[in-house]
């Protein structure tokens, strides 16, 4: 609450200065003043107190806004402000993602077209490494009263690598299931063939056709071993 110091007699300026230094809004000597003076002092004290509170509130908001801006500007995502196609602001994260170095983007443009409302991915080269994949978003804004475009850059290289690895794993799993199914059906056919070949070998044991039947049996057994490998691959066995 605003405070006014009141003395009953004119004690000089020392009392007034002491009161003001202690935080009072004003100091009044009753002996030297009237009721109207006290009322006016009270009104001014309340108004000054309200103005000081409003100024402090605005200052707090400004500090919070600046803190939020600093947090965003120094975050992991790259931020670039374009005014008439030229870079008016970029945070360190954008310079790191584009490998331009401090101030490397100032006054120039981005190395790729800026998208509209859609989210796109852009590939940017890296020194000594595969290209980096950036997720790029844009939104209209204003920069010191000028129409501008805010571009957000996010590194999704690792996410894309994981997605590609997952795709290959799924493809390999599909091939494994296909190979296992084919090998299972083929193994059933070979089992029937080998059974009939064994019977045929007994009937032709003492004939010139016996070596031929033995060769066919050996080939069928090799095919059976191959199907066992395919089954192991389909079931992810060693």
What does this structure look like?
This protein is of the alpha+beta class and 238 residues long. The protein contains 5 helices and 7 strands. The strands form 2 sheets. The protein has a 5-stranded antiparallel beta sheet with strand order 4-3-7-6-5. A two-stranded parallel sheet has the order 1-2. Strand 3 and strand 4 (86-90) form a beta hairpin. The longest helix is centred in the C-terminal third of the chain and has 47 residues, at 157-203. It is rod-shaped and about 145 Å long. The relative contact order is 0.07. The model has no long low-confidence stretch (mean pLDDT 80).
Record keyword descriptors for this entry.
238 residues; alpha+beta; five-stranded antiparallel beta sheet; two-stranded parallel sheet; 5 helices; rod-shaped
